[in-house]
Design goal:
This protein is mostly beta strands and 155 residues long. Helix content is 15%, strand content 38%. β7 and β8 form a beta hairpin. The longest helix has 13 residues. It starts with a strand and ends with a helix. The N terminus is likely disordered.
């Protein structure tokens, strides 16, 4: 895994983005999640929420779980040499997640067109219990477009 302000692109690698709340390794309150590609095009994400990610004391805020699922599902397009923007998410929560306990998410592609893709994902607790499951629809973006936007914003 590599870290950079703008990703250096290698197909099938999972990159980290410095300012990203979910994967940014230096974001003060971020999740600092890591991701890897699995055989068959699946993506695995891992992070350990701490107290700053809680809503109720000791319980991870559902918004944090949604962000983690969104990022994990969206990253399935990296193997297509594309970037993405989230269009919609449908999340079903199965149980609460405790702070300071490692969570794992898995996502896979369900369908893809030239401009969109749909992915499904699940977050699991340490004993294999399903914390949440989701389906997301994402807009595909070419890397050149992302680089142009970043350049225009002087990132």
């Amino acid at each position: 895994v590599q870290t950079c302000a703008l990703p250096i692109w290698n197909i099938m690698e999972q990159v980290l983005f410095d300012g990203c709340f979910v994967c940014g390794p230096d974001t003060r309150c971020g999740l600092k999640a890591t991701f890897k590609n699995l055989p068959g095009g699946e993506v695995e994400g891992v992070f350990t929420p701490d107290e700053q990610h809680s809503g109720y004391e000791g319980v991870v805020h559902t918004g944090v779980i949604v962000g983690f699922l969104d990022e994990t599902m969206g990253r399935v397009c990296f193997s297509m040499d594309k970037y993405y923007l989230t269009q919609s998410l449908n999340v079903i929560f199965k149980c609460a997640a405790s702070s300071n306990i490692r969570l794992r998410a898995f996502a896979k592609l369900r369908r893809s067109t030239r401009r969109h893709f749909t992915a499904e994902g699940k977050v699991f607790g340490p004993s294999g219990e399903v914390i949440a499951e989701a389906e997301g629809r994402f807009v595909l973006m070419d890397g050149a477009v992302v680089k142009k936007i970043a350049k225009d914003m002087e990132i």
